[in-house]
Specification:
Layout (H helix, E strand, L loop, with lengths): L1 H25 L3 E4 L5 E4 H13 L1 H18 L2 H7 L2 H28 L4 H28 L7 H29 L19 H26 L1
Antiparallel strand pairs: 1-2
């Protein structure tokens, strides 16, 4: 049942990593940076990116939504107070779910075309692009919906980039370690059947040896039949 596998594995992965991301914030494995746009920095971002990369856009969007909901209901008091405002909650939920989902498409693109370890450089570019898009997508609707005349969009976006910079570095480092540590078959996205998959050098050598062995056995069988 290929269809069930393609749908349910990403779904389960998104739920599990979304819950873990929320719990990372609730239990203090993430920390807040005070300012115009308070952001949690820690393992939550890493888990969301892994959900989208390994599970695809569906897993990423589900993980992001679960994370925001858990953070709103059970997160630290400062974060709960911020997200309790509908003009902050909905822009953050939609922007995070959208950008995390796009990461899944980006990872599929580089997975099909680039081998390790060069793939890690392309992955770093995807993470940076993710944060570049996330800030204006989440801040701009808050500015348009805000009734506070003192709210200024450009300083908010600039400060958002400043606070996301250490998170981006953290995410690139941790996710790259995960991709290096996992066997090749586990870094393959679960949400599609790849037509072309870059093979690791050791896999290529093994398959070449198997082909040569098969040819040798076939030739030996032919010789015995001729005799």
């Amino acid at each position: 049942m290929r269809v069930k596998k393609t749908i349910w594995q990403p779904l389960v992965l998104g739920v599990v990593l979304g819950v873990l991301a929320g719990m990372a914030t609730v239990t203090g494995l993430s920390f807040l940076t005070p300012g115009i746009t308070d952001n949690a920095i820690g393992f939550y971002g890493t888990l969301l990116l892994l959900a989208s990369a390994l599970g695809g856009p569906l897993a990423g969007a589900i993980a992001a939504m679960i994370f925001v909901i858990i953070s709103t209901l059970f997160g630290p008091p400062d974060l709960k107070e911020i997200l309790s405002d509908p003009t902050v909650f909905w822009p953050n939920l939609l922007a995070l779910a959208t950008t995390v989902a796009l990461v899944g498409f980006g990872y599929r693109f580089i997975f099909e075309r680039i081998k390790m370890p060069v793939r890690l450089l392309a992955w770093a570019g995807i993470v940076i692009a993710y944060y570049v898009m996330l800030t204006p997508l989440s801040v701009t609707p808050q500015y348009l919906l805000s009734v506070d005349p003192s709210y200024e969009i450009l300083p908010a976006i600039r400060y958002g980039y400043e606070t996301y910079a250490p998170q981006a570095i953290f995410d690139i480092f941790i996710t790259s370690l995960v991709f290096i540590a996992l066997p090749a078959k586990y870094v393959r996205p679960l949400w599609y059947e790849a037509k072309i998959v870059p093979k690791q050098d050791d896999q290529i050598d093994i398959e070449r040896d198997q082909i040569e062995t098969t040819k040798s056995e076939t030739n030996g069988t032919k010789v015995r039949h001729e005799n």
